[in-house]
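TICKET #2291
ISSUE: user wants both folds in one file
ATTACHMENT 1:
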Amino acid sequence: MYPIKLESTWSKYISPAGLRELVWNTAPYLKTRAADTPFLKTLHAEPEDSVYGYFEFCLAAHHTTVATYVPTDVDSKIRGLLWRDTSDQEQLRRMAAKALEMHSWTLDGFSLRTVDCGRHGIVSGHDGEWLSVAAGALGRFLGRGDTESAERVHEAIHQELLREIAAFEYLLPIQGRELDVMRLAMSVTHNLGDLNQGISFWSGPVRNSASARQFERLAQENASGYGGAFRGPCALYKELLASEGHRHYPLRAIKCLRQSPGLMLPLGPFFDDYGALLSTTPLLDGGGRAEILEALVRGCRKVPNQHGYYRAIAGFQEGSQRAFAQAAAALPASAGKLLKEMRQKVSMPRRSFESTYVKRVERLRNAVNS
């Protein structure tokens, strides 16, 4: 069977050239970086003329940008649409193999939203992106009756979920890692949501399959899957972190933040160090700092109930009083007024702010041990 030609595929979706330009726009430093990883080589080359080739290209674009300020919008393609664009078994299996390979791609230079979980490895939002793509593969194989391929992908998803459970159980009892427990809770909960997004493309009898029953809606408060092991991290997220899981639209227009991977956002709401970096890094000039400070100030009002931007502003001021004063003086009058109104919240000491999260983790720790 001949592969589907990409003239039809590309006519429905953004072209590889257009997608590549979106990558360079949000991560311009990648344009001149050596193609030192398989996925960067993919981005710098022309894709194979097949659905598989376009899928591989989209995976590379997604992996390199999903933790940047302006991720490329290919989620629906790699989670569902492209899996439907071919019935060629060889292509589907190649796509699944590439999707499984994606899970081992490096995060160095591509994300600061990671948590080191010791022997259980690094857990990040990229794991959720991978889960959603793997779910796309699983649903397609289940629908086609390709039992061998379905079992292989099902087991890979299952092992990743077990790893994230083990990572949480490993970190929870460690004194001094309470904020990392919170960061991990955010990643794990988002990852379960991404898995659901992949499953949302399933249809027909597959929606009622054993895989759907095992993997779907694990983040719900009453979820019993995996012995209820995900209830702990999901409860932490729901109680204290849900408002921090937004898409950071206020920062998307700030192009000076895109010039280095070191300026990417870490996991919120613990942005004090991020704010301090903004006020001290030689990568930013006075105009850039003022632009960022304005975005953070306006973001505090645009995103209700979040705390991360307040902490970034606090860190900005703590990092360099001089840089903060210069940036504040350059703000438009309306933004300057908002900044003055939020001084009390910004002035909260870092330790006082973080203590709420530390105490919540301690309560969970004590409940587990009782």
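ATTACHMENT 2:
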Amino acid sequence: MSDNNMITIVSGLPRSGTSMMMRMLEMGGIPPLIDNIRKADVDNPRGYYEFERVKKIKEGTEWLEDCKGKVVKMVSDLLFSLPTDRKYKVMFMRRNMSEMLASQKKMLDRLGNKGAGVSEDKMTELYEKHLKKIMGWLEKQDHMDVKYTWYHEILADPATQAVEINEFLNNVLDAEKMASAVDSSLYRNKK
């Protein structure tokens, strides 16, 4: 698979650090496929790096042609819908569940959204079940190479993590620029 044809996907649960990873990859040299419909705000001051058509993957995948040589962000549940006639490099972000849920709650509160009214314990149970399912499924996908990366490990040592990510993505990125994209001041929901 040539780098010009490589489709790189950043995935994970909500508030797991996917936007940070998108920024790192952009700074490292992979152009993001984004539409800028969702604007940067207090929750993601550097932007959300989203492409709305991703959410409609079950209705059509013609937009995947535009992903060659680029990186696109996709919530983990949508990975199941990717066609198997292409190869993908998937950067899957992980984060402490309590931190992730605290960050999500703050964001929903700021938006005036009460969410689904589900307790943190129930959300943890649902997310853990989903992670087990998606990670088990990803292990069996021959058309996907997956690297799991922990949010807190990037914040603790961005230089080392950038080198490892670059190795996974065929050593075509500028790891130093990737590491410089990490802003630890945005780590606001620590547990």
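RESOLUTION: both attachments delivered.
EXTRA DETAIL ON ATTACHMENT 2: The chain has a mean pLDDT of 86.
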